[in-house]
Amino acid sequence: MKTMFEKIQRSIQIFTGIPTLCLILLTGPHAPANESYELILDNFEQTSENEIRLDVMLHNTGTPFFLNDVQVEITFNANIMPPETFFHDHGLQILPGSSDLLYPPENSNLTLAHDGERLILVSEEPSYMEAAQEVNNNQYLRIARLQVFISYQDKKGAFANDFPNLDFNAGNSFIQKCLVDINGYKISPGEAVGGKELVNSLSNVSLASHFFAGSGYWYENYDGQYLNWNIKPETHSDFSHQIPGPHDNAIIGGLAVIAAGESVNLSKNINGQGGMLKIMTGPKPLYMIELVPNGNNVSVTLYNENYEAMNNPSQVEVGTY
């Protein structure tokens, strides 16, 4: 006597000619049925007193598509520019070879908006009947690594000690797909891909007005010109060879030595700005830092790159704030 399930199972096999096990596998896990993607800001780096770099990424989280073009608009806090400094199109660059796109953006595709407070990045796109780039599910592509300089008069300036607040302008950041023939050649104009998500991994980064390069003493100077601070030749003399003030941010990009009997004091101002020190490079794997309070009822805490409190004194890895 067959059960009802056995009768149904036998009927399926007779009707389809496919074993029940195979039928179950065919209806198992499958690729996403909807379009969706992420545009990502990531991998921020300040490489000098007047230069920053960051990545713009694409992550396809939905069905595959053929990429037509990308447009990204990045807003930033204008207060990172000290008085009389500015961004200029000549100071906006795309690092050569940094893009994974078949039709990558060129330097001329990275521009400054008319208000001076937005960066606009546009990729190239295939012409009609040119090969289009397929972007598969869960594929990451770097659209470009951007390099931005701050200018001052006829040379370069230095950033202010502030948070750049880099972020996407949601309405003007998107990607477009195109239809292709059986050979993967473009046969239609671009149209927007649905399911956009904007991911900003740079919400907590800060900028420093002072950058220590080379190897030497913190206060080493000749005739008032500090030999290891803001030393790039293209940095204007109004910003070069100066040590950080008490409320500045500073980056150690070399080996900085504080001589016996000397001290360095960096602290936030009344607006909560400044007082941050980042160690980029140096003897690996660890530094030894001892934190000493400088007054009564004062506590001092060291934070790692994830802004988690660390013990005092502490050994910290390269890259710690």
Short description:
The protein has 321 residues and is mainly β.
Give the CA-based shape.
elongated
Low-confidence stretches: 11-31, 312-321
- What percent of residues adopt helix (DSSP H or I)? under 10%
Strand content: 25-35%
- Total number of helical segments? 2
Q: Which keywords apply here?
A:
mainly beta, seven-stranded antiparallel sheet, 26 strands, elongated
Element layout with pairings:
Blueprint (H helix, E strand, L loop, with lengths): L3 H13 L3 H7 L10 E12 L2 E10 L4 E11 L9 E2 L5 E3 L15 E3 L5 E5 L10 E3 L4 E10 L1 E2 L2 E2 L10 E2 L5 E4 L13 E2 L3 E5 L9 E3 L2 E3 L3 E2 L2 E2 L23 E3 L2 E3 L19 E3 L6 E4 L12 E2 L5 E2 L3 E4 L4
Parallel strand pairs: 1-15, 16-20, 17-21, 20-22
Antiparallel strand pairs: 1-2, 2-9, 3-7, 3-8, 3-12, 3-13, 4-10, 5-9, 6-7, 10-11, 13-14, 18-19, 23-26, 24-25
What does this structure look like?
This protein has 321 residues and is mostly beta strands. Helix content is 6%, strand content 33%. It contains 2 helices and 26 strands. The protein has helices spanning 4-16, 20-26, and strands at 37-48, 51-60, 65-75, 85-86, 92-94, 110-112, 118-122, 133-135, 140-149, 151-152, 155-156, 167-168, 174-177, 191-192, 196-200, 210-212, 215-217, 221-222, 225-226, 250-252, 255-257, 277-279, 286-289, 302-303, 309-310, 314-317. The strands form 8 sheets. Strands 3, 6, 7, 8, 12, 13 and 14 form a 7-stranded antiparallel β-sheet that branches. Strands 5-9-2-1-15 form a 5-stranded mixed β-sheet, with no helix packed on it. A 3-stranded antiparallel β-sheet has the order 4-10-11, with no helix packed on it.
